[in-house]
Amino acid sequence: MEHTHLIIFFAFLLLLPLSAFAQGPVIMDIKSYGVGPDGDITDALDKAWKEAIASPKPAKITIGAGQWTLKQAHLAGPNVAPLELEVLGTVKALPDVNQLPNKEFEWVTINYVNFFTLSGVGGVFDGNGQQAWAANDCNTNKNCAKLPINLSFNFINNSIIQDVTTKDSKNFHVNCIASGNVTFQRFKVSAPGTSINTDGIHIARSDRVTVVDTVIQTGDDCISMGDQLTNVLIKNVECGPGHGISIGSLGKNPEEKDVTGITVQNCTFTNTDNGVRIKTWPSAPATLNISDLNFIDLTMNNASNPIIIDQQYCPWNLCSLDKASLIQISKVKIDNVKGTSDTQDVLIFSCSASKPCQDVQIGNVDLKFTGDPALGGATTKCENVKYTTTGTQNPPLCVKSSAPKPVPK
């Protein structure tokens, strides 16, 4: 699936007149717009972008090596011909969120483009987020200040984001919303594990999104997925530190729509707070379905909660547990999951009492508990789940360890 976008891309190129490629793409070097070395590229990028989207020939905006300041960029299409933004240097945000020219926008927003490429080996978008993390009180303050996302992609299609790094975002590093046939490849997310609310890539209301050959180190979910998603492939991703790869949380909004066709394959989780997680809110109005999920060939290196379905998700006691989740989870395949966990329950199925998890297929699990040996070995937890098993199950599914618990001192 990760190659589908390339086939469509090249098919589109064949439809363009040969004259469009006679001398390659139109190059728009940011330095040609009056920017000195290590200067502020805010106005220059805006001008270059407007010229590039209007070009009848493929266009390429280049931000060369060096350190550049960018106050904010709101870049919108539509574009006439294929368009590339190449970043070879470090583009840095201002540290104070109050310095954003428009606080309603993210730091870098790219909307309504087709056949777009963001590229650049060595290129970095540095959100300069340390000051914002220190002031972030969103876990206790519902009216907390809105913080900007490093890279916000909305309504983009047939596009590739490759070989660039997003670093130290003040909020989520990336979102990809209402988009189709988008690939993130050889992408990197970099932030300390202590950074707050810095999800690596958030995807929602999209179809055919691929994340491949990517390294994500951050303080929240490596990848988070919202509602109305179809055909997502996450493959060869290294996650950690972070909170793992999550579907949800879902259920709060009655307008939420189904999630179907999610594959997480050949991924590694190192010292993460979770591995793969599904989370839905109890006592919430949404009635969507989450189905056709594949968690295959996963390696856990001292990860907490390697596989967890949590339909009683209620962080900081911000909800009621009076009513079970109304979301149906079904057709889940879990196979070839191995490694180590620092939590004893290595598989957790905490499913809804009103909508039990259906058709969960579990095969070839080998997970070891690395904590206190006095607690016994790895265990599993099963509530309201209908499952079948094949292959080796270590630990045995839904059988608790009989080892005595240590007496508290």
TrEMBL record:
Gene Ontology BP, a term: carbohydrate metabolic process
Keyword tags: Cell wall, Cell wall biogenesis/degradation, Glycosidase, Hydrolase, Secreted, Signal
Active site: 243
PROSITE patterns: POLYGALACTURONASE
Main location class: secreted
Keyword Cell wall biogenesis/degradation: yes
This protein's name: Polygalacturonase
Organism for this UniProt entry: Perilla frutescens var. hirtella (Perilla citriodora)
